């Protein structure tokens, strides 16, 4: 008898093809939280961080997002320690454009010279010869955006990058970048409670470009009462409801919820199997969130 194929939990979210050639499950993992407090230094529970990364892959997560500024360097190093040699279908995406000088301290640097130097560090720490998706973490007000993109295009031409992505950008940035190099993904702050970048998401949807929402559960803020009502009625967490809404919001949505806890990881990935009813989805869509800057 032929063995029955069992879908891993993350696969229940469906798939998306990033850049035309990277097929991944639409429930990813963000590796910022596996570092120390203030996204600085080593994690307090190193064994727990490594276990979380390994469990993510066991659950079918094959898209892991990080950045050289997480730690700095620590997140990339932990990913390699936990997962190398990598499964053949695992896509690791990292970012450049922030530098770190202390806990909670972030400074811009997306100059071409910095990008050229930074990618060598990421390749070494991740033990890769090429990065599948290399993202500009944030535009640098002190550097030409076009020059930053031209350097990323150059690194792509050199074979050090497979695809280029953007993060924390406006629609104008996306369209300017597309004139220089193909863009396969955008990572902006987005959640049910924070839809400031709806129009960027809609653009990505129209182009078949992956959209990676950071802060997908509007961390640090009380869940909307509609989310709480649905969660209570269905006996799930508000995180599950929030992630399920994101997955249904657009076929290009690729959530990357982050945690350093295996328990929370399993809960987040479990959202891939949760389906909102049409009535629940319509009720959530009818809510107009308060602007981000007006919420406490």
Question: What is the correct CATH architecture?
Answer: Alpha-Beta Barrel
| Beta-strand percent range | 15-25%
User: Ranges with pLDDT <50 over ≥5 residues?
Assistant: none
Shape: globular
CATH topology: TIM Barrel
CATH class: Alpha Beta
Radius of gyration: 18 Å
What is the count of distinct domains?
Answer: 1
Distance N terminus to C terminus?
Answer: 58 Å
Largest β-sheet summary: 7 strands, parallel
How do the helices and strands follow one another from N- to C-terminus? EEEHEHEEEHEHEHEHEHHHH
Question: What's the total number of strands?
Answer: 11
Could you name the CATH homologous superfamily? NADP-dependent oxidoreductase domain
Mean pLDDT: 93
Supply the helix-strand structural class.
alpha/beta
Give helix % range.
Answer: 25-40%
Number of alpha- plus pi-helical segments: 10
Provide an overview of this structure.
36% of the residues lie in helices and 17% in strands. The protein has ten helices and eleven strands. The strands form three sheets. It has a seven-stranded parallel sheet, covered by helices on one side. The protein has helices at residues 46-58, 74-83, 112-126, 145-157, 171-178, 198-207, 225-234, 238-249, 262-270, 278-285, and strands spanning 15-18, 22-25, 29-30, 63-65, 91-96, 98-100, 106-108, 131-136, 161-167, 183-189, 210-214.
């Amino acid at each position: 008898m032929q063995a029955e194929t069992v879908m891993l939990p993350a696969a229940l979210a469906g798939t998306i093809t990033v850049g035309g050639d990277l097929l991944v499950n639409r429930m990813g993992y963000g590796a910022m939280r596996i570092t120390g407090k203030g996204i600085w230094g080593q994690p307090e529970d190193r064994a727990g961080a490594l276990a979380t990364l390994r469990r993510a892959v066991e659950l079918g997560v094959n898209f892991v997002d990080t950045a050289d500024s997480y730690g700095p360097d620590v997140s990339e190093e932990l990913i390699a320690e936990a997962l190398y040699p990598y499964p053949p279908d695992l896509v690791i995406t990292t970012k450049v454009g922030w530098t770190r000088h202390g806990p909670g301290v972030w400074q811009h640097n997306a100059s071409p010279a910095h990008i050229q130097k930074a990618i060598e560090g990421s390749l070494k720490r991740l033990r890769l010869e090429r990065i599948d998706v290399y993202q500009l973490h944030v535009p640098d007000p002190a550097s030409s955006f076009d020059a930053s993109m031209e350097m990323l295009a150059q690194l792509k031409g050199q074979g050090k990058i497979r695809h280029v992505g953007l993060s924390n950008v406006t629609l104008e940035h996306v369209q300017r970048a597309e004139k220089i190099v193909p863009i396969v993904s955008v990572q902006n702050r987005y959640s049910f409670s924070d839809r400031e970048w709806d129009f960027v998401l809609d653009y990505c949807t129209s182009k078949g470009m992956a959209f990676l929402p950071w802060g997908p559960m509007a961390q640090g803020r009380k869940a909307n009462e509609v989310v709480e009502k649905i969660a209570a009625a269905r006996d799930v967490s508000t995180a599950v409801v929030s992630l399920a809404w994101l997955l249904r919001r657009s076929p290009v949505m690729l959530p990357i919820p982050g945690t350093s806890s295996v328990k929370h990881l399993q809960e987040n990935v479990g959202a891939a199997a949760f389906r909102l009813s049409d009535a629940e989805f319509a009720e959530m869509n009818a809510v107009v969130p308060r602007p981000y800057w007006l919420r406490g």
